[in-house]
Write a structure and sequence with these properties.
- Pfam families: Zn_ribbon_4.
- This is Zinc finger/thioredoxin putative domain-containing protein.
- It comes from Rhodovarius crocodyli.
- The chain is α+β, with helices and mostly antiparallel strands.
- Among the domains are: 35 residues, no CATH class; 46 residues, no CATH class.
- Helices cover 34% and strands 11% of the residues.
- A two-stranded antiparallel sheet has the order 1-2. It has a two-stranded antiparallel ribbon with strand order 3-4.
- The longest helix is centred in the last third of the chain and has 26 residues.
- The radius of gyration is 41 Å and the shape is elongated.
Length: 122
């Protein structure tokens, strides 16, 4: 939309959506402030055109596909998941056993560990 300053006639190109409902304006050239309200001529007024609904086509008749839930045999990932859990538990148990069985060499190598092993008795 082309807007002109009423004081100095400087023109500005402003997007319609910024001034559609009216807006307070200030001229960058002369500094004049004014409230701009767009003029809407009755003939230029936009009226929505009636939209005819598109014809609805009937969906093709098909038999529904019935799926069966997967069985345990169809899930190879279930065995892998169980083996991963077993391996994790064995790794943690092995780490705890190593800390206990190797407590003396570990305490000699790193003396602050003696506080951890103080209750076990070296």
């Amino acid at each position: 939309m082309l807007i002109a300053c009423p004081a100095c006639d400087a023109t500005y190109q402003v997007p319609d959506h910024l001034v559609a409902a009216g807006r307070q304006m200030r001229c960058a050239k002369c500094g004049h402030d004014w409230h701009f309200v767009p003029e809407v001529a009755p003939s230029a007024e936009r009226r929505p055109e009636p939209v005819e609904p598109a014809p609805v086509a009937a969906p093709p008749l098909e038999r529904p596909v019935v799926s069966t839930p997967p069985t345990d045999a169809a899930k190879p990932g279930k065995l892998v998941l169980a083996l991963a859990w077993v391996a994790s538990v064995l790794a943690v148990a092995g780490g705890v056993a190593a800390l206990f069985l190797l407590r003396v060499p570990l305490a000699e190598a790193w003396p602050p560990l003696e506080r951890l092993y103080g209750w076990v008795g070296l």
